[in-house]
PLC-like phosphodiesterase
Amino acid sequence: MHVPTPLLVLAILSPIALITIPTSQLDRVIHHRLCRTTGPVCNGHADLCNRSYGNITFAGSHDSFTFTNDTLQLARDQEVDIPTQLDFGIRLLQAQSHLWLGALHFCHTSNNLDGGKVADYLTIVANFLDNNPNDVLTLLFTNPEGVSFPDVWAPLFESAGLVKYAYVPPRNPMPQSAWPTLGEMIANGERLVVFIDYVGKDGRTVDYLLPEFGMIWETPYDMTDPSLPCSIDRIRGADVLSASNQMYLINHEIDIIVSGALVSDPVDAPTTNSVTSIIAHANRCLHFANGRNPNFILFDFINLGEIFKAVDQLNRL
Ligand SMILES: *[C@@H]1O[C@H](CO)[C@@H](O)[C@H](O)[C@H]1NC(C)=O
Ligand SMILES: *[C@@H]1O[C@H](CO)[C@@H](O)[C@H](O)[C@H]1NC(C)=O
Ligand SMILES: *[C@@H]1O[C@H](CO)[C@@H](O)[C@H](O)[C@H]1NC(C)=O
């Protein structure tokens, strides 16, 4: 049996042994314990500080802006607002954009759920980063209308005061193994990673708006098969990095069909978001990634089920 070192130490420090330990030595033991509990913490865990961003599983909120308790609103995928999602431990926020009356909004197009202006959403993100200096957050936005990075997206990040937090990788695409540790990102103040699925139609880039595919591949979304089989769905061609050298995201959401439309299912969410279901899905993907766990998992109804327990388990916390 493998006995962890701290347990061995405890066994040696039985009450009788304690009496005979010189005070100086006892101090050292106590000091060591204090240091371990009061040292740097990254995304809520000391053990994550020394881990590469590319070697961590982050819990993500699918269609993060669609929060409402109105059960008649079939386009909703969440029940709690963005600050509450972040309080729960969500560290990737996903959202779909749509230009509307000259302003970029987040919108669930299929059912027309307007999630408000991107500018307002980014202010909430900035507020979180201002108030949580030891946290790294990832944004994953979709750009289905091919809106310009420098003309439309970048000014919104500038107005929200987010550019100073945005991580600019030394090369693009960055292989999974090349990412800095959370501790390094926090020390450098670059605590926001922004992925956008597709570059704008004008083809112009911005250094901190990272095209998703090429660095991340995804499993299929809008799945109705409750067994959630794993396959590589969206990915940029092998011209860049092979799948096993990219990070990857699993879409852990099961839809049902209501009047011909695909909608998320809050009734099943506690089962979908159970540890068993999440770990099993992750395990089905391992062979695409040299045995590595998913980097990001997107969930519907992040307040239901046990997603943070599952993610901690994947991170061996
Ligand atoms: C961080 O990780 C590196 C390499 O994995 C290791 O050499 C180093 O001792 C670790 N530092 C801490 C503080 O755990
Ligand atoms: C991180 O690395 C460990 C050890 O190689 C691996 O077991 C784990 O699946 C990795 N996780 C991610 C998200 O890469
Ligand atoms: C929905 O209801 C839950 C439980 O009462 C509550 O915590 C949450 O804040 C509500 N969501 C919204 C968007 O009002």
User: Anything to note?
Assistant: The two ends are 21 Å apart (CA to CA).
